[in-house]
Write a structure and sequence with these properties.
Jelly Rolls; mainly beta; 12 strands; binds dTDP-4-keto-6-deoxyglucose; 1 helix; globular; five-stranded antiparallel beta sheet
């Protein structure tokens, strides 16, 4: 699997905690876009796509969720359940997000601006592009 876990440090003092993500330092790309997923209803599964070029980093800044990954040869599940554990999600890995806790805020940092053409939402096309 190309995608992998990255840990960031928990900084802080008697006032509480602070964690930092810096483009081209903590994560291996310049951050062009930030979005966050929250208020996800019970039982909902999202994603169901891969990308052509967008690299992303996912971190639950509140709560937890699971990410199912599929590189056409292998499948894996990553649980994001702490503010210091991030998933570097590479474009070639099909992904689905699920098991969101009520308080989940999934922060996503992306290497490219939003472009619907960058999505591969058809699993057969995904296999043609990235399989074999
Ligand atoms: C991904 C996973 C982790 C925009 O207009 N701009 C944006 O930057 C984004 C990300 C979405 N949208 C619109 C497109 C849809 O109408 O917001 C709506 C929900 O997006 P989508 O159904 O693509 O959301 P997810 O949760 O399936 O996927 C998102 C990202 O789109 C995707 O890049 O990898 O989170």
């Amino acid at each position: 699997m190309s995608s992998k876990i990255i840990q960031t440090q928990q900084l802080g003092d008697e006032r509480g905690y602070l964690s930092v993500i810096e483009g081209n330092l903590t994560i291996p790309f310049e951050i062009k876009r930030v979005f966050y997923i929250y208020g996800t209803k019970e039982g909902i599964r999202r994603g169901f796509h891969a990308h052509y070029k967008t690299r992303q980093v996912l971190v639950c800044v509140s709560g937890r969720c699971k990410i199912f990954l599929d590189n056409s040869k292998r499948k894996d599940v990553v649980e994001l359940n702490t503010q210091t554990k991030m998933l570097l999600l590479e474009p070639e890995d099909w992904h689905e997000m699920y098991d969101f806790s009520d308080d989940c805020v999934l922060l996503v940092l992306a290497s490219h601006h939003y472009d619907p053409q960058d999505y591969i939402r058809d699993y057969e096309l995904f296999l043609e592009v990235y399989g074999k």
